[in-house]
Write a structure and sequence with these properties.
Elements: H1 8-21, H2 34-41, H3 45-57, E1 61-64, E2 68-71, H4 75-101, H5 106-118
Antiparallel strand pairs: 1-2
Helix pairs in contact: 1-3, 2-3
Pfam family, one: GntR
Keywords: DNA-binding, Transcription, Transcription regulation
Domain HTH gntR-type: 6-74
Length: 119
């Protein structure tokens, strides 16, 4: 469901982004309407609309007048790149700072990550 730690419209936008990345919504495929999302998630239609609007503003969704919202061409690749950049800033940079303080080299850190991944 939606992440309670974020505003509903942001959590909704992220949920749709997740669906685009996992293939639930392919490029040029329709996404649920504002009213469908509001009914399914039991939220205000204005909140659902605001979440969809974020994705339109970001170029992830495109509006087709009278038809609905569709995944924009290239949206999965653009989302993946944006999230990779955010991942680096949110997780990798702090990890490297902490590793440096502990005297862990990048090579040692890579080995630790590989070891954990093999578990």
């Amino acid at each position: 469901m939606l992440d309670d730690s974020k505003p509903l419209f942001v959590a909704l936008a992220e949920q749709i982004e997740d669906g685009i990345l996992d293939g639930t919504y392919a490029e040029d495929a329709p996404v649920p309407s504002t009213n469908e999302l509001a009914a399914f998630l039991r939220i205000n239609p204005a909140t659902a609309g605001k979440g969809l609007g974020l994705l339109v503003d970001a170029g992830v969704l495109v509006k087709r007048r009278g038809i609905g919202m569709f995944v924009a061409p290239g949206a999965p690749a653009a989302l993946r790149e944006r999230r990779r950049s955010a991942f680096a800033a949110q997780f990798i940079a702090p990890l490297l700072r902490e590793a440096d303080q502990l005297g862990i080299t990048p090579d040692d850190l890579a080995g630790m990550i590989r070891k954990e991944a093999d578990r």
